[in-house]
Design brief:
By secondary structure, this protein is of the alpha/beta class. Helices cover about 30% and strands about 20% of the residues. An 8-stranded parallel barrel has the order 1-2-6-7-8-9-10-11, surrounded by 6 helices.
Length: about 250
């Protein structure tokens, strides 16, 4: 069982979802660089393994060349579109930021861990996400307290046993965080997660006022396509970015 959390982490993590994907093409090095420039303290992407064993970053795991769609798993890295980054390309610009990866292909897990270790990314700044709580539990048990942090991504509507029991099971297995849609969180649920020692992450944060509200209720991290709006929400500037958002 994880140790209860007395308060949210001192410096909340602002994850740029697929980079600054509200401003640039997502899952590109350009979008990741822009996200850091705009103040993101974490970068998020989806990781897949190519046929020849390279970890690459893409949404959905399918790429199109000419008129044909192919899975990344059936494609060599050299045959991918040029905009699809290789994980080491992202790690080279990460700096002190956190890294959150949705592990779309579980076969990519070991290569991801090897790449982050080789790049010197601290396990405490490496967050590996999956929607299956059983898979998350197996990873957390394997890594222990000294390995990458494991995050379960879920929705309350998909927890037939109830959120309290789900959080309890995650805590028992050593899963570090629960990542839910912003609308699923309340102050009471954040406090519940913290009592079990599980951090509260929120995704699909579109506006500064949403980020501000989630951080005020104690969420430890927020994910959004516009990292500048996350920064504004953290810093109490909620007006101008929201007025022009979509």
């Amino acid at each position: 069982m994880r140790t209860p959390i007395d308060a949210p982490r001192e410096e909340r993590i602002l994850f740029a979802h697929r980079g600054a994907s509200g401003h640039a093409r997502g899952n590109t090095i350009e979008a990741f660089r822009l996200a850091l420039t705009l103040g993101a303290t974490g970068l998020e992407s989806d990781a897949w393994l190519t046929r020849d064993g390279a970890v690459v970053l893409d949404h959905g795991g399918t790429v199109r060349r000419r008129l044909r769609a192919r899975t990344i798993a059936s494609t060599d890295r050299a045959d991918l579109p040029h905009h699809v980054p290789h994980l080491p390309d992202l790690l080279a610009i990460l700096g002190a930021a956190h890294l959150s990866l949705d592990v779309g292909d579980v076969a990519a897990l070991d290569p991801i861990v090897a790449a982050t270790r080789a790049a010197g990314v601290a396990p405490s700044r490496t967050w590996l996400c999956h929607p299956d709580p059983a898979i998350c539990a197996s990873w957390a048990t394997r890594f222990g307290d000294d390995g990458p942090r494991v995050v379960h991504s879920g929705r309350i509507c998909d927890m037939p046993e109830g959120i309290e029991r789900r959080i309890g099971r995650l805590a028992e297995a050593g899963v570090a965080a629960l990542n839910m849609h912003r609308e699923d969180w309340s102050g009471g649920l954040v406090a519940l997660a913290h009592r079990f020692g599980v951090e509260a992450f929120a995704w699909d944060v579109r506006f500064a006022h949403q980020a501000s509200a989630l951080l005020a209720m104690g969420c430890d991290a927020v994910y959004g396509d516009w990292p500048d709006r996350l920064v504004d929400g953290r810093d109490g500037r909620e007006g101008s970015a929201d007025a022009t958002g979509s």
